[in-house]
Protein 1
Amino acid sequence: MTVTPDADPTDTRRTGYRRRLMDGMAEALAASPYRDVTIGDVVKRAHTSRRTFYEEFRDRDDCYFALLRSVHSVMLAEVAAAVDPRSGWEEQIRQAVTAYFTAVAAHPAVIRSWVRELPSLGDPAVTLASRPRDEFINLLVGLSATDEMRTAGFHPLSVDTARFLVGGVEEMTALVVEDNRPVAEIVEVAVEAVTAVVGLARTQTADA
């Protein structure tokens, strides 16, 4: 790894430790449910010490929540990057949905834990769950508000419509990670459903 002249080697090293610990948590989740994961499991997989762990995270939950936020941020970035605003609106929907479920498939253990275990972890977990949902909603509204989409006859999605779509996508996500449904199968169902809802909004706009 090359450090730029302005970089603080200590900060760079700490960032590396933090990433390794989150990766260790992800590996531990692939082997056991979160309730059974210990800090010892994480540091063993990360090849670090407990002292290093506590320099980066307050406790086990802090590391877990940081991992979930990191994975979700990566997923949203991949969805945003996959959508070509020059494409037709139906193709943009396919690009976004495909990118999302491809990202889900790349992090099955983390997403499975998010779906199954996060809701039972109390108030901080509720906040963590709602914040990424709001970020996803904002992403969908933003993707629908481009000049290309307006040219195609769309007004930006309302927050409520985007919330409806995100809720459906989350349910389909649960099918992938809990029932081991093939991602390709789920993508086709999700693309069809999202296209229908967005297409209806376009029809209503045209009729107004």
Note: The domain at 60-207 is CATH 1.10.357.10 (Tetracycline Repressor; domain 2).
Protein 2
Amino acid sequence: GPVADKLTPRVTQTAKILWAVYILLSVAETALLMLGGLSLFDALCQTFGTMATGGFSTKNASIAAFPSPFVQWVIIIFMFLAGANFALHYRFAFRGWKIYRDDREFLVYVTIIGLASALIYVANTGVWRNFGEPAIRDTVFQVVSIQTTTGFITADYEQWPMLSQLVLFLLMFVGGSAGSTGGGIKVLRIYLLLKFVLAEFSRLLHPHAIIPVRVRQQTIPRDVVMNVLGFFVLYILIFAGGTLLIAAMGYDVATSFGAVAATLGNVGPGLGEVGAIDNYAHFPPIGKWILSFFMLLGRLELYTVLILFVPAYWRR
């Protein structure tokens, strides 16, 4: 992420710790899914799709093929954990729940999921046949799946009101936390940008005041904030350019927006012809190449790939 968050002074040791956390969570999810009635094979495959926020299932109907409320809630919980900062999970073992409560990015992450779920639940009042647990589960599942960029599906959200679809579309850009397996812009970057905007407003009111941007008890240097702003602008420009390219192939606005947002954010399902129960098979070869490039670009966070196209990089 844009802010260093080392668990140990050595990178190799930090990597081992994060791998250990990943494996422990994977074992726990697999065991719980088997407890919910899944075979070892299905439990392992759904776990791999959850913890890596990959979203591939062994079933064409995705997680809707497993109608058990227990199974779906287990997957919701582990998608949520996979979309959070893994460093927090490690520190939880030593500092307890306080570590989550004191982390601003985690609180923003939870707040976004909570607000999006509440908004969609209310917007869907004309859709739900049952306003109880099934409706809550369907809402929370889709919100957590899309925001963490996992891409598992239990409901065809294209049958939901346009407001609900718009909220899910915006969540495709947010993504998971820094230090998670999720894609997207990342919650920490968005939080930093919001803090920066508020600081700029304060400077307008108090021109001589020194108003630092602080995250995790650290004052963030202005060059780091500018880097985050640059990443955000570049992300939006690539999204806009990609949307134009897909639209030029004859696809409607919803499909063009959804396909680029979903591939750039590594979400999977988008809108329109690439919605919850659709796929990308109908794209022409050039469209598949473009969207494949966006998946790679988004997964490696833009700069890592784009720098390969800078001539000066190869002259070094």
Note: Residues 222-247 form the longest helix (26 residues).
Protein 3
Amino acid sequence: MNLPAKIGTGVLVSAAAGWVFIQNRWLTTDKYEVTVPGLPKEFDGKKILHLSDLHKKRYGDGFNNLINSCRFLDPDYIFFTGDLFSRDETNLDPKILLMQRLMKIAPVYYVLGNHEGDAPDRALVLSTKLSEEGIHVLNSRTERIELDGAHINVTGAVLPQTHYHCEGYSNRTVITPELLKGLVGSPEKGTVTFLLAHDPLPFRAYAEWGADLTFSGHVHGGIVRLPFIGGVLSPERKFFPEYSKGVYRLGDSQMVVSAGLGKFRLHNPSQIILVTLKSR
């Protein structure tokens, strides 16, 4: 290769590396309007900020960039659907600080992901501290949100670790409506139920269980996104996952999937989601 060719190759490689570097520091906001059948009119127009899969990302000192973006959106509630930390992180004080700062914006509801499940001792300490701070930690339990005499339920389902990975990613625990009933009970009849569950791939089970609106993450938008195709890969090494980013529907049940905030990605910027609820 002659000198001009070497220089040109070097420039292209440097430009590509710079582009990837910049992309992995972008923070985008996507806004969705979601009409929920049976939603009490008191919740019409209420806004839910959806975050997921932070892992080791910081977004400025004290998470300032992330906090400022969230505050600007002025949500009524904040849902965080797991992987607040990575399994190999030991100092979780920054994550507690982040959740404290988010709580000053709006009430925060949090469910564990698979990385928390891989570090159960740290997850227990974190959950306890967050609960003491006033965060709604939904470890396979339900809380009621009341507003002007009306209410909805928010359930957090902590899926078994054997669902996420076994040896060779085979023979994983299949999520079924019956398994969910064993974890969190049945949804209250006649009451709209939102479900926080880290993995979006069992959407059909969530819908059949009775979730009106599910919030998930985990797939990181498919890690790499291709035009007209979408996400390429899930963390379980599943190519072209059916649910990777955006809003999906099965019958009357809907699901919002976050592309997440952390880890490597390509053509797939980190994402904050703002859902505006609409009653029918």
Note: Residues 27-279 form a domain with the Purple Acid Phosphatase; chain A, domain 2 fold (CATH 3.60.21.10).
